[in-house]
Structure to design on (270 residues):
């Protein structure tokens, strides 16, 4: 086997080792079947889109990934780790991070301080460090501030680090929330409708920021209704409909898939 082929095989093996694997995932509430045998491989180094009509099961799928919902059947693996019985805090320790549809920043904290909140799971200082000038607590706070500033710099909003959320527009607040989600260098980042409530200019800036997050060590999944954003930033898109996987493919393949057009995208005349 020559060197280029070996490199391709090695890269494929690495992706599988770090991928988020979902097999035969089913979820129901009472007699209502929400997800039907979903099987996906969410790969690092790519931005994955998850789309579908309202009620398709997108948020329920996210909640299964993070442990908020316990599916009745199926398997969720991150590399060699089986996650299906792990609670949300345990999955956070393994590197799961997510945002929600509505921005939730503390108005009494600066942007940098809000981002530092996302590092709590990595912090070791106890309550006593909050009241006494202990060396360990000081070092940890300095480290967390440095990581927070790095996340804001990566998203291009380091200049508002000392501002308060009430003084900033929605687009910047959304980026600050994403900054909080990435400050701890997650292995899996789940973004739930990050463009909700943003205007066209803010959505464009968001798209450019999301592209900067693409990393060989990060599984990045975006649920979104803004199709221009999804088609712009995503490498692969999965389409859900009534809790079932309808289609998977590149943006071009999804745009021309007749079933996807019929149930979700519509046509130009519509």
């Amino acid at each position: 086997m020559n060197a280029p082929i070996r490199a391709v095989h090695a890269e494929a093996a690495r992706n599988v080792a770090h991928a988020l694997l979902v097999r035969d995932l089913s979820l129901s509430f009472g007699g209502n079947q929400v997800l039907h045998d979903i099987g996906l491989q969410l790969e690092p180094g790519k931005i994955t889109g998850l789309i579908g009509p309202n009620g398709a099961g997108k948020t329920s799928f996210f909640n299964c990934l993070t442990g908020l919902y316990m599916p009745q059947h199926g398997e969720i693996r991150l590399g060699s780790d089986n996650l299906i019985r792990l609670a949300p805090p345990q999955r956070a320790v393994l590197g799961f991070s997510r945002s929600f549809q509505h921005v939730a920043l503390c108005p009494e904290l600066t942007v940098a301080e809000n981002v530092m909140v996302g590092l709590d799971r990595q912090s070791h200082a106890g309550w006593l460090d909050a009241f006494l000038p202990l060396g360990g607590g000081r070092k940890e706070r300095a480290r967390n501030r440095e990581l927070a500033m790095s996340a804001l710099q990566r998203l291009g909003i380091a200049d508002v680090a000392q501002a308060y959320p009430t003084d900033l527009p929605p687009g910047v607040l959304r980026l600050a929330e994403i900054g909080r989600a990435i400050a701890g260098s997650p292995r899996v980042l789940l973004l739930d409708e990050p463009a909700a409530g943003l205007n066209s200019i803010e959505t464009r800036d968001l798209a450019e920021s999301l592209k900067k997050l693409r990393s060989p060590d990060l599984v990045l999944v975006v649920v979104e209704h803004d199709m221009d954003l999804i088609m712009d930033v995503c490498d692969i898109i999965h389409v859900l409909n009534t809790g079932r996987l309808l289609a998977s493919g590149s943006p071009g393949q999804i745009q021309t898939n007749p079933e996807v057009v019929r149930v979700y995208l519509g046509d130009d005349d519509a």
In short: Strands lie at 20-29, 32-42, 47-51, 73-78, 81-82, 96-98, 188-192, 219-223, 236-241, 244-249. The chain is about 40% helix and 20% strand.
